[in-house]
């Protein structure tokens, strides 16, 4: 059987700094061949790059990475990437999937587990969440998504530390830790992010119990009114990080 392609999910609220990480992947000469699935090209320039699939808007960047927008179902998009990979003989070492700023990453992660095609060809490496130190306290007071994104993270990147004083930053860290007590926190202003900080972490599948609990929550949260399953929702769930058992809360 072909080795599964690792997938990294990058989440973070609007304006947190996901684009900075994605641009690093797409534009640096790092030697990795990564398929980057984003929601909008926006600030990410893809001009003058080699077009591999016009219909699906799949571009090959100068450094060998692929870049494409998510315009259809996740499974369909990744099928297109595999097709381009096979037809063009292109290497794909891993996939980076960017969520929207308002997305809860839990249902997205669950899709990779519950859809047979995705489960057969891909494996989740880690869920990374970018936290905006300048706006996080305000965001969590007014929106549920930032806390969900932090709560489900395997690793957290803090952005905009330099834009707040140390008292505020300490409050932000305390709030993050109250939601997610054990995920590693990396300050992007303190040291530049390297590829090894983002990929090959193998954090998501540290325990099968997390997967079982996600599936149980999905079954419990089936909504008769709209006729589909709501994953994660308002339930607390355990998330096992290496050998340490701990809970993540919304």
Helix percentage range? 25-40%
Total strand count, please? 13
Could you give the order of strands across the largest sheet?
Answer: 3-4-5-2-6-1-7-8-9
Global Rg: 18 Å
What is the molecular shape? globular
Terminal-residue CA separation: 38 Å
How many helix segments?
9
Regarding quaternary structure, what we see is single chain
Report what the structure shows.
There is one protein chain. The chain is an alpha/beta fold. The protein starts with a strand and ends with a strand. It has a 9-stranded mixed β-sheet, sandwiched between helices. It contains 9 helices and 13 strands.
List the topology elements.
Elements: E1 5-12, H1 18-27, E2 34-38, E3 50-53, E4 58-60, E5 66-69, H2 74-88, E6 94-98, H3 105-114, H4 116-121, E7 122-132, H5 136-142, H6 145-151, E8 155-159, H7 166-179, E9 184-187, H8 195-198, H9 208-220, E10 222-223, E11 228-229, E12 237-241, E13 244-248
Parallel strand pairs: 1-6, 1-7, 2-5, 2-6, 7-8, 8-9
Antiparallel strand pairs: 3-4, 4-5, 10-11, 12-13
Write a compact overview of the structure shown.
The protein is an alpha/beta fold. 34% of the residues lie in helices and 25% in strands. The protein is built from nine helices and 13 strands.
Protein traits:
alpha/beta; globular; nine-stranded mixed β-sheet; 13 strands; 250 residues
